[in-house]
Amino acid sequence: MSRYAAETSVPIERSRAEIEGILRRYGADGFRYGWADREQRRVEQIEFTVHERLIRFTLIMPSQHDPEFARTPARGHRRSDKDRIRAWDQGCRQRWRALALCIKAKLEAVECGISEFESEFMAQIVDPGSGRTVGEIMRPQIAQRYAGIDARLSLPGLPAPEE
Predict the structure, then answer these.
(1) Strand extents, DSSP E, the chain
(2) CA-based radius of gyration for the chain
(3) Which residues, in sequence order, are bridge partners of residue 157?
(4) DSSP 8
(5) CA-CA distance, 108 to 88, in Å (whole number)?
(6) Three-class SS of residue 60?
(7) Cβ-based burial of 39 (10 A; exposed 0-12, middle 13-18, buried ≥19)
């Protein structure tokens, strides 16, 4: 399966500006962007307030040294430094396009009544007490609860895989 916007030429700055516009259209009343370089990777975040909630999305950008950029996907030929950097830049642009799509889809689902705001953004809601997202708080707890449980859980009302 190919990634959404894998061949995009849209610069990151334009995707970020598009996200700001989307947020304004859907009633956000605050927006913030920031980044930090951590262990040869860039961490980029956006935060916004909407429906009286602070929402945070964190993008871990790929490293220029990731193996996926060293070789061509089709034949595995080694890329030149220039082509490797070009492929890395493409990967960064792709992530921002996917984030724009994600946010727009979630807000539209809420607007149309398909879903509720808290359901769509649960993992990204910032807990005011800890400053962490609900996802950051809950992921370890979910993993712990599933540890040791048969991974072949079936859907309710459907037979288990071995039946």
Answers:
(1) 30-38, 41-50, 53-60
(2) 19
(3) none
(4) -
(5) 31
(6) strand
(7) exposed
Alpha-carbon distance 14 to 30, whole Å?
A: 18
> How many Cβ atoms sit within 10 Å of the Cβ of residue 12?
18
Cβ neighbours for 114, distance < 8 A, ≥ 6 positions apart = none
- Backbone torsion region of residue 70, taken as left when φ is above 0, otherwise alpha when ψ lies between -120 and 50, otherwise beta: alpha
Q: pLDDT tens digit string along 125-153? A: 999 999 999 999 999 999 988 887 765 66
Counting every residue written for the chain, the total comes to 163
- Name the residue ranges covered by the structural domains of the chain: 12-146
d(CA 110, CA 39): 37
Q: What is the pLDDT of residues 106-129, one digit of tens each?
A: 999 999 999 999 999 999 999 999
Two tokens, residue 33: 């962007």
Give the position of tokens 């072949």. Answer: 152
Sign of CA dihedral 48, 54, 95, 39: positive
Q: How many CB atoms lie within 10 A of CB 151?
A: 7
Please, which residues have CB within 8 angstroms of residue 118's CB and are 6 or more apart in sequence? 53, 125
